[in-house]
Amino acid sequence: MTTDQNFKYVHGYSERETERLYDQAGSVRDLIHLDTAYPPGSVVLEVGCGVGAQTLTLAQNSPKAKFLSVDWAEDSLALARELIERNKISNVEFLHADMFDLPIKEKHVDHIFVCHILEHLFDPVLALIKLKKYLKRGGSITVFEGDHGSCYFHPQTKEAMQAWNCLIEVQERLGANSLVGRELFPLIKASEFRNVCVVPKMVYIDQAFPELRESFVKKTIIPMVEGVKTQSLDLGLINEQAWQKGIEGLHRTRTDENGVFCYTFFKGTAIR
Question: How would DSSP label each residue in 9-31?
Answer without folding.
Answer: -TT-S-HHHHHHHHHHHHHTHHH
